[in-house]
Design brief:
Order of helices and strands of chain B: HHHHHHHHH
Largest sheet of chain B: none
Strand content of chain B: under 5%
CATH topology of chain A: Alpha-Beta Plaits
CATH architecture of chain A: 2-Layer Sandwich
Number of helices of chain A: 6
Radius of gyration of chain A: 18 Å
Number of strands of chain B: 0
Number of helices of chain B: 9
CATH class of chain A: Alpha Beta
Strand order of the largest sheet of chain A: 8-1-10-9
Shape of chain B: flat
Largest sheet of chain A: 4 strands, mixed
Distance between the termini of chain A: 34 Å
Helix content of chain A: 10-25%
Largest interface: A-B, 22 and 17 residues
Shape of chain A: globular
Number of domains of chain A: 1
Radius of gyration of chain B: 25 Å
Oligomer: heterodimer
């Protein structure tokens, strides 16, 4: 679904200011807690079966002793034209027309892993085994989010459960969702406010104002996937902006 | 009429196959019927009588008096033992079922009610948004007020949900997968 062909509903968008990201990984922890993402063991990680809906990529720049670390938080880019969607034989990788995000319908998924293999961002995670939560973690599972069984693909949903809860609250009060009313767990946890989330169709929203920025770029933009995640380039000249 | 032993092996095979096939059909039909009639009462620790509480001639208590969360929360909720005892500390205290209730209260134990209606873990359901849209309790739960023990009256499967969702004005929004699956 191309960005221009669907103008109704919402266009949930994330802006990541790389100047502000300190690589603290609070977002990663918050994501695990919010979305019932199991923690893979060391052996699993060695096999390439780590489970994270979001990761912080770390790049070193310069030569010792002038070394700098740069961080890029990477999670599902919620592509407008998502490579994961057309390859799913059972429509489990599905584009929500209303919310303009790519969602995974877990009970449809039959585990072909085509979507994960076709994703250029490598953000889709496959449940190679039944999820295990060591005590007392099983007591803190989020009841609004499915605990995915074995053989099912999963990924970041922009915390769609929070988005929907915001929509339901707004509906009940007969009004539209306010900017900043809905925040995914990662955005809520970010201590430096490097992550900003909102509806790009709302022209007054913070994301709509942040996107037309000279520092703005998208990951693997040349592929034409039309990501809904915009990054703002880091660099000393922009510190404190 | 010929005896079975008089038939050729080929005829015996055909006859046997037909008998097995017929048996399979009978079993499948039986299973289908057993699956669709779902109104089996669940064994509860206390024989709570909905009719006694709801019936206008007797007490006329509204659903949300006990299921308090139904307007504000995804779950309607089961009343606490404290709530039961609020009335039954005084009312019908010598009824054998109320004696059971009082025992739970005195032992400070919750009543292990058995679930009657259930959604699978991959389905999100919100009571409050349905109530806010004017869906009555009875649309899904049946006329619980006339039941002695609460029974499941409809199979709350995806077809049942979509039958209603597709008839709404904002059906495009209501048939989006993420409304229920997240």
């Amino acid at each position: 679904m191309s960005e221009d062909t669907n103008k109704h509903g919402h266009k949930w968008t994330m802006v990541v200011d790389l100047d502000k990201c300190t690589g603290c990984q609070a977002c990663v922890v918050a994501c695990h807690a919010e979305n019932n993402v199991p923690i893979a063991s060391e052996e699993e990680v060695v096999k390439g079966r780590a489970m994270h809906w979001m990761r912080i990529e770390r790049y070193w720049e310069g030569e010792f002793p002038d070394v700098k670390a740069k961080f890029i938080p990477v999670f599902c880019q919620q592509c407008g034209d998502a490579p994961c969607e057309p390859v799913c034989p059972v429509y489990a990788s599905y584009h929500s027309e209303e919310e303009n995000v790519n969602v995974q319908v877990y009970n449809r998924c039959i585990g072909t892993r085509y979507c994960g293999n076709n994703c250029p961002y490598r953000v889709r995670m496959f449940n190679y085994r039944a999820p295990e939560f060591d005590a007392p973690l099983e007591q803190q599972l989020n009841p609004d989010v499915t605990v995915r069984g074995p053989g099912v693909m999963e990924k970041c949903t922009f915390c769609i459960q929070r988005v929907r809860r915001g929509a339901e609250t707004a509906n009940a009060e007969n009004r539209l969702i306010k900017d900043g009313e809905v925040v995914p767990a990662c955005v809520q946890a970010c201590p430096t406010n490097a992550l900003v989330f909102g509806d790009k169709y709302d022209e007054e929203s913070r994301v709509a104002k942040l996107v037309p920025n000279e520092r703005q770029f998208k990951l693997l933009e040349s592929l034409g996937t039309e990501p809904a995640v915009y990054y703002l380039k880091g660099g000393e000249t922009h510190v404190g902006e | 009429m010929r005896r079975l032993a008089d038939l050729s092996p080929r005829q015996q095979l055909i006859l046997g196959g037909a008998a097995v096939g017929g048996l399979v059909v009978v079993i499948v039909v039986f299973l289908l019927i057993a699956n669709t009639t779902s109104s089996a009462a669940v064994d509860q620790p206390i024989a709570f009588n909905h009719n006694k509480h709801v019936n206008i001639a007797e007490n006329g208590i509204q659903c949300q008096f006990c299921h308090t969360g139904v307007y504000t929360s995804p779950v309607a909720g089961i009343p606490s033992v404290e709530k039961c005892m609020g009335c039954h500390g005084h009312i019908a205290t010598d009824n054998p079922e109320i004696v059971k209730l009082t025992a739970y209260w005195e032992n400070q134990e919750p009543i292990p009610w058995q679930r009657v209606n259930e959604q699978p873990s991959f389905v999100y359901f919100n009571h409050s948004s349905h109530i806010a849209s004017g869906v009555t309790c009875g649309s899904c739960h049946g006329d619980v007020g006339t039941m002695k023990t609460a029974e499941k009256v409809v199979d709350m499967n995806m077809g049942f949900c979509l039958d209603c969702h597709t008839q709404q004005e904002n059906k495009d929004a209501l048939i989006d997968c993420v409304v229920c699956h997240r």
